[in-house]
Amino acid sequence: MRKSSIQHTLALLVATFMFALTAVANGKFVLVIDPGHGGKDAGAIGKVAKEKTINLNVALAFGRMVESGCPGVKVVYTRKSDKFVTLQERAAIANRNHADLFISIHTNAVARGRNVVGTETYTLGIARADENLEVAKRENSVITYEDDYQERYEGFDPNSPESYIIFEFMQDRFMEQSVELARLIQSQYSAHAGRQNKGVKQAGFLVLRETSMPSVLTELGFISSPAEERFLNSKQGQEKLARSLYNGFVKYYKQQSKGGSPVVRQPAPVAETVQPEQPEASAPVQPVELAKPAKQASVKPVFKVQILVSDRKLSAKDARLKGLKNVAYYRDGKQYKYTCGSSSSFQEMQQLRKQLSKRFKGCFVVAFEGDRRVDLDEARRRAK
Length: 384
Ligand SMILES: [Zn+2]
What we know:
The chain is α/β, with parallel strands linked by helices.
C-alpha cells in the first residue's frame, strides 16, 4: 500500500518534471546569427583578409559560446560555411524560425587613403549622416549578385539615395529593444575587446527591414585599416569580438526574460573555433519550381501601385494618403505596404504609377490574386 503510494508519487513527479522539460524546450529563446556575405560575395576586401571569412569565424565562435553558456537559447545560423545566401533568405530563415532576435555580423570598409577604425552597430531606420547611408549602400549592394534582384526587392536600387526614402516612413516597432541590444554590444566591444566605439546608428538595411523581430547589424571594425585588419584577422581578435557579442547578448537576454532568471553559465573556452575557410560545396542544382497556374482560370490578377511602407497601420486621415483614391494595404512581415488604385489592366496602373511617382518616388506596380501578392510578370502574362 505504502509502496504503491510512493510509486504513484514518483510517477507523478517524473511526469511533472518531463512536462516542465518539454515546456522549457518548446519555450526556447531563438537567436538567429547571420554571418554577412559568403560564396561569390566576399564582402569588403582587405590586404589579406576577406569580410565573409571574418564574419563567419566570429559568428561561429559567438554561436558556440551561446550554445554552451545559455542552455535556454536555440541558435540558428543563416550560413555555417562559405556559401552565398540572399538577403531575403537570411530574413526568411529568421521569420520561419520565429526568432526572438536577429544579429547580422559584418566588417566595415572605407575608400583607400582614409584611416577610419572602430565598431558600430546599426538598427533599422533613416540614416542621419552620409557615412551611415554609405554603409547601408555597401551592405545592400550585395543584392546585385542576385539575378532577379530588381523584381525581388521591388525596384530597390541599393545605390540610389531615392530608394532609401521608403525608410523614412518606417518606425520599427522593435526599435527600443534593437537599440538596447546595439548599445550593450557596443559597450562590450570597448570594454572587452578594447575597440573604438563609433556608436549605435540607424540606416536602411534591407536585411533588417525584412525581419519580424528585434534585429541589429553590427560592424566589427574596418578591414580597410591595416592595423584593424590584423586584429580582425587574428584568432585572438575574432575570439574577443565573439566574446563581446556574447556578453552583450547575455545582458540583453537576461533583461528580456522578465521575472524569470534564465540559466547562464560560463561558456566553454573557444579553443578551435576558427575553422579554415571551406570552398562552396557544389550542391546539385535543384530544378526551380515554377509557380503553378491558378486552378480556377477565373481568378484574374489585379494590378495596383505600391506607394509606401509603414510599420503600423496608417490612419485614413494620414497626410501621406491625402487626396488618394482607392488606397489599400497588405501585410508583409512587420510591414504594412500601401497601394493606390486597382485595375485588371497593367497599362492603366503604369499610367497611375507615372502620375504618382512625383509624390512617391520609386513607387511601382504590383500584382495580386485575391489577397495574395503574386509575381508581376506572371500576372501580366495571365492578364492577357
Ligand atoms: Zn558586410
